[in-house]
Design goal:
Helices cover 57% and strands 5% of the residues. Strands 1-2 form a two-stranded antiparallel ribbon. The chain has a two-stranded antiparallel ribbon with strand order 3-4. The protein is mainly alpha-helical and 364 residues long. The longest helix has 37 residues, at 77-113. A hairpin with a 2-residue loop joins β1 and β2. The protein is elongated. α5 runs antiparallel to α7. The protein contains 13 helices and four strands. The protein has helices at 18-33, 43-50, 56-64, 77-113, 133-152, 168-172, 189-215, 241-250, 253-265, 279-303, 308-317, 324-333, 345-362; strands at 118-123, 126-132, 223-224, 305-306. The chain has a domain at 95-156 and 184-362: Fumarase/aspartase (Central domain) (Fumarase C, Chain A, domain 2).
Length: 364
């Protein structure tokens, strides 16, 4: 799948494409039926026929019953759509975990390699105190590890409730539902938690991209993308394109997650009149944009160039101002300033890198 309006969309592969959706819905129906149907479903035709019923399941079931009259018995459209979305999400989240593990590995190596590389810390855009680039990379790594943990905690359940969540038809048919399968027709926590976890991934990625965008400015020159993008009119430019595209994603995914919360807040009765329907395309865009952003972040880190000499030069040019706090603290303590003013920054880098190694080891 490609999308001219979202360069890089092909990185998300077949996740949450129309064909993926059809396949997931068909898998739900086949699993409930207890056998494969071997029916070819045209996604474009199904999309066309979905409008009259407000969702694609009605048209799908009509087609499937030409081959098997008992298909879908006991289920409702929302059971099939919700279960299909969660199954597609499970596959996409596994891809995200894989890509995030690569990001974690790259960041752990970067932080460890530069744990003592000196640079100036910046707060509110201004020089603050000395720090190390490894400490900065450890902050990036912490955000990615937190996002990874949030993905790991997700529950992506099937939905089996029947027409109004009471499972009346299922009981009438004498069917049983697999243990632990919940009913969440109008309680949308599985959806909102997924949205929050996905937005958390782009939050973590843009933490990196923002610093690269700032630190790669020519007047700073402390970082550079390994292969910057060009310009249509200015041949001298090497734009930090991957960072720009990651930032683009992070500027849009929070609104998508918010839409899922808004849809959850619009639930009423025993199936929402629009709130449920608003989730599908929203989740598609959120999943695909997150997949693209994480993949681009991995490539960004793979080619990142660290100009340690520029970092040291900037710190040196900052002069005594960056040590003003140290002099104040030393005076208050009644002793001369120490030879270094890095606090426990180096030790902290080691702690974060160790956490990264534990995460990588646990997932193998």
């Amino acid at each position: 799948m490609t999308d001219l309006f979202w360069p890089g969309d092909e990185r998300a592969g077949s996740h949450f494409t129309a064909e993926d959706f059809v396949g997931a819905m068909l898998a739900v129906e086949e699993e409930w039926l207890g056998r494969d149907l071997h029916v070819r479903v045209d996604a474009e035709r199904l999309a066309h026929d979905a409008e009259s019923g407000g969702n694609p399941v009605i048209a799908l079931v009509r087609l499937l019953r030409e081959h098997e009259p008992d298909v879908h018995r006991g289920l409702t459209s929302q059971d099939v759509v919700d279960s299909a979305l969660m199954r597609m999400a499970s596959s996409a989240v596994e891809t995200l975990r894989r890509d995030l593990r690569s990001v974690v590995d790259r960041l752990a190596r970067l932080a460890d390699r530069h744990r003592e590389t000196p640079m100036v810390a910046r707060t509110l855009t201004q020089h603050a105190v000395p720090t190390t680039f490894g400490f900065r990379a450890a902050a990036w790594l912490t955000a990615v590890l937190d996002a990874y943990d949030d993905l790991d905690r997700l529950a992506l359940p099937d939905q089996v409730g029947g027409a109004a969540g009471t499972r009346a038809a299922i009981v009438e048919l004498g069917r049983s539902v697999p243990e632990g399968v919940p009913r969440w027709h109008t309680t949308r926590a599985p959806m909102t938690r997924l949205g929050d976890a996905l937005a958390g991934c782009t939050d973590a990625c843009v933490r990196i991209a923002n610093d690269v965008l700032t630190m790669s400015r020519p007047e700073i020159g402390e970082l550079a993308e390994g292969s910057g993008g060009g310009s249509s009119t200015m041949p001298q430019k090497a734009n930090p394109t991957l960072s720009v595209l990651v930032r683009r994603a992070a500027l849009t995914t929070p609104q998508l997650a918010t839409t899922l919360h808004l849809a959850a807040a619009q639930q009423l009765d025993d199936r929402a009149d629009g709130g449920w329907h608003a989730e599908w395309a929203t989740l598609r865009d959120l999943v695909r944009r997150t997949l693209v952003a994480v993949s681009q972040t991995d490539d960004l880190l793979a080619g990142l160039v660290v100009h340690a000499d520029r970092m040291a030069a900037t710190l040196d040019s900052a002069g005594d101002g960056v040590l003003a706090e140290q002099r104040s603290m030393a005076s208050a303590a009644g002793r001369p300033p120490a030879s270094s003013y890095l606090g426990d920054a180096v030790a902290h880098v080691g702690e974060v890198v160790a956490r990264a190694h534990r995460t990588l080891e646990e997932k193998h």
